[in-house]
Amino acid sequence: MNMENKFIDFEILERFMLDLMVKAGVPEKDAKIVTDVLLQADKFGFECHGTIRLKPFYLDRIKDGILNPVTNFEIVREGPTTAVIDGHNGMGHVIAYKSMQLAIEKAKKYGMAMVAVRNSTHFGIAGYYSLMAARENMIGITGTNTRPSIAPTFGVENMLGTNPMTFGMPSDEPFPFLLDCATSIAQRGKVEHYAREGKDMPKEWVIDENGKCKTNSREALADLIAGRAALTPLGGVGEETAGYKGYCYATVVEILSAALQQGAYMKMLMGMKDGRKAPGMIGHFFIVIDINAFTDPDDFKKTTGNILRELRASKKMPGQNRIYTAGEKEYYTWMERKDRGVPFSNALLEEFRGLCDTYDLKEYMPCFEADSAGVLF
Ligand SMILES: NC(=O)c1ccc[n+]([C@@H]2O[C@H](COP(=O)([O-])OP(=O)(O)OC[C@H]3O[C@@H](n4cnc5c(N)ncnc54)[C@H](O)[C@@H]3O)[C@@H](O)[C@H]2O)c1
């Protein structure tokens, strides 16, 4: 599959996804949030979590009755700097957006805040919510548990999710420091991407039931789905390259996503109950630190910017001409894509034409024709 065969304009996608979500029963205000988070993934180059997930992760789950299109955001416990939310298996993006908003409001008043969430669903790119805080001159920390797929060090059973933990911090550069990644070496979306391309994966992404590394991506994907293989934590297999560090960070995220809010964890998140599809029951946490409570935000941004610039200016490895800092590549991807749009494969175009048909949005059909030239409208 060639991901670069057609670019779809962001504005068209935004209108289409909004109309589609509303047709699927999501209230318009909430549909705007879902659309924005999904498009942000494509803007940053995290295709695995963008429009490609619209059908399988959200529309199909609404159809299957395991994702509530109308989100009941219930505050079940609250203090001046804390809150516990029950999301009642509504739209994960909406629950996360509102939770981060609440944490920002509280941190503005009291300097720091934390909101813990239970019974949510897949919320897309975790970095979106940390970025919300960074845009307000605050530090944002976001984490979520997910369906189990990582094996603990010396284990082969998928126990922990790919559990991203993300940090957003403003800098004096055009982009913030934004670390947004899973606590596994690769997340399942990347394995799916390699499988679609028919390419072998790098060693140590996936291990089989005997602890041996699997590189055949199609086999690995089938085995991951069947529970016969597991993803490896950051650091890789065993102790030699400190795989236990990634394993323990994933455990931190699992605990913070379940214990404070008394929500579900690990195998409870398989999405299956008594052989039938079941709601996500995902947990998240959102921590916000108001920089102003510590120092002048401009001073913070300057120090952060200096740290990042010094790192990038340091001596390079032979054969490498640049060093990156977190959030930088995403900024450049957005600069490159903002006028060009989102790359769509033929398979994705076909899927979107199917959605135009199913949701009676035929006016959008020409936008997703493979043979029409370039960006449409
Ligand atoms: N909701 C969920 O259940 C879930 C689960 C897993 C991952 N995710 C999301 O998937 C997305 C991708 O995750 P991933 O683990 O594949 O990310 P990744 O491995 O692509 O890492 C991305 C991060 O690393 C930084 N980075 C990349 N190259 C760099 C370099 N050379 N130097 C310095 N920094 C560099 C980027 O700026 C970014 O912050 C993220 O948005 C994550 O939140 C979501």
Question: Which molecules are bound in this entry?
Answer: nicotinamide-adenine-dinucleotide
CATH fold title of the largest domain:
Ribosomal Protein S8, Chain: A, domain 1
CATH homology group of the largest domain: Malate/L-lactate/L-sulpholactate dehydrogenase, NADPH binding domain
Please identify the structural class as seen in this structure.
alpha+beta
Mean pLDDT rating:
95
User: How are the strands ordered across the major sheet?
Assistant: 2-3-4-13-5-6-7
Number of strands: 14
Q: Mind telling me which CATH architecture of the largest domain this is?
A: 2-Layer Sandwich
Radius of gyration: 21 Å
Query: What's the tally of helices?
Result: 11
Description of the structure:
With 377 residues, the chain is an alpha+beta fold. The protein has 2 domains: 1-63 and 341-377, Hypothetical Oxidoreductase Yiak, Chain: A, domain 1 (Orthogonal Bundle); 70-185 and 232-313, 2-Layer Sandwich (Ribosomal Protein S8, Chain: A, domain 1). It is 38% helix and 16% strand. The chain has 11 helices and 14 strands. The protein has helices spanning 10-23, 28-44, 54-63, 92-110, 127-134, 188-197, 217-226, 243-256, 297-313, 328-337, 346-358, and strands at residues 6-8, 74-78, 82-86, 112-120, 138-144, 165-169, 177-179, 206-208, 213-214, 229-231, 272-273, 276-277, 282-290, 342-344. The strands form 4 sheets. It has a 7-stranded mixed sheet with strand order 2-3-4-13-5-6-7, with helices on both faces. Strands 9-8-10 form a 3-stranded antiparallel sheet, with helices on one face. A two-stranded antiparallel sheet has the order 1-14. β8 and β9 (213-214) form a beta hairpin. The longest helix has 19 residues, at 92-110. Bound molecules: nicotinamide-adenine-dinucleotide.
